[in-house]
Amino acid sequence: MFKWVINTVYKHNPECMCGYKMKPTKVRFDEDSWKCIWKKCGWETYESPNGKLHWLKKN
């Protein structure tokens, strides 16, 4: 139930490796960026101008 609520709220965001949708951040000002809602997961991603997602593991 909890996962469904999170994925419904962030339905237009990319899905993290852990299966939950990511929340938007303002880390990169010229590109869209997201990070996982769980701190222990640590995945972040950003979208380049050509539409490709670049994944980063932050721990």
List the helices and strands and how they pair.
Blueprint (H helix, E strand, L loop, with lengths): L1 H8 L13 E3 L6 E4 L7 E5 L5 E5 L2
Specify the biggest β-sheet: 4 strands, antiparallel
The percent range for strand residues is: 25-35%
SSE pattern, N- to C-terminal: HEEEE
DSSP strand count: 4
**Structural class computed from helices and strand pairing:** alpha+beta
How do the strands line up in the largest sheet? Answer: 1-2-3-4
- What is the share of helical residues? 10-25%
3D shape? globular
Backbone CA Rg:
11 Å
**pLDDT below 50 for ≥5 consecutive residues: which ranges?**
none
**Number of contiguous helices:** 1
State mean pLDDT (0 to 100 scale). 92
Tell me what the structure shows.
14% of the residues lie in helices and 29% in strands. With 59 residues, it is an alpha+beta fold. It has one domain (2-57). The chain has a 4-stranded antiparallel beta sheet with strand order 1-2-3-4, with no helix packed on it. Strand 3 and strand 4 form a beta hairpin. The longest helix is centred in the first third of the chain and has 8 residues, at 2-9. The termini are far apart. The mean pLDDT is 92.
